[in-house]
Amino acid sequence: YTDWSRDSLIARLHALESSSKPTTTIPTKASLPQHKSSTFDFQSHPTRHIALKFLYIGSHYNGLEYSGNAASLPTVEEVLFLALLRARLVPPLPNSTDPESVLAWPGPEAINYSKCGRTDKGVSAYDQVIGLTVRSRRPAESTPGSENWDDEKDELPYPTILNRLLPPTVRVLAWAPNPPENFSARFNCASRTYRYYFTNPMLSPLYDESGTLDIQAMQKAAAYFLGDHDFRNFCKLDASKQITNFTRHISVSRIVADTATTNVGDGTASSGVYFFELRGTAFLWHQVRHMMAILFLVGQRLEAPEIVKDLLDIEKYPTKPVYQMAHEHPLVLWRCDFPEID
Prior knowledge:
Alpha-Beta Plaits, 9-stranded mixed beta sheet, isomerase, EC 5.4.99.12, alpha+beta, 2 domains, PsdUridine_synth_TruA
């Protein structure tokens, strides 16, 4: 090209560039043929009613119950519902535009859904239980070979399936294949146990030298909760629910040292981790956190242990005094008892 003029060289470059362009265009999503996504046929699969046990870290969630309202944090049920829908374990709401959206949740009546206990924002659970009807691969009793069916070996691995879709702050622990007929996680639960964890001292001595709690006084106060009592002075009153019966039965109420972290020595209180353990058949709204708040006042020597007896006496204190309930994060739904399926 040494003898070519400048204009000839430019013309040649343009010709080479044109010949190097691809002769085919890269297909875009819009240009590809559109295929309708195949719908999952739930009618062709058997179903069964099961119970699921799971745990969750409450600080990541706006409580257990899904309400449909927009919030900064999701609820535990919201992520659980999404996992059940995406795993095709429950059918979506008919005519749903997005079968993998929480808006496609079919509702409690459609799948016989029930839950053991509703926990509020920030409260954790290590033994929450729900009941629901899910897809199964268990054959009908009349099917040849059904007599050799093994729930543990042959059924869908429900915990494994759901844990692959759930965030790490929610874990399915186990499932019960044969709950009682007409099982309800709410009404079949014989008792619920809560634990509220705290340290003694409450605050580091570097910041507060008076933070040491009187554990023995707290134990004495906690014992006054045992039995049947009217707990209207130990709960958050909700006028919209129109509750008239505030009597609840408490079978366990005690302050316990966590032996893994606390050296109790000769039995006297020492520094470490403790928890308030409370067991009953049912609880009022924020009842445990209100009870713990009063126990903290006793532990800080601001009230005598007998304050519990006084507040349980509705004739003496007909209206609830003003006090701040304990923080939600140390509270855990520790255990739900189901004698028929445990």
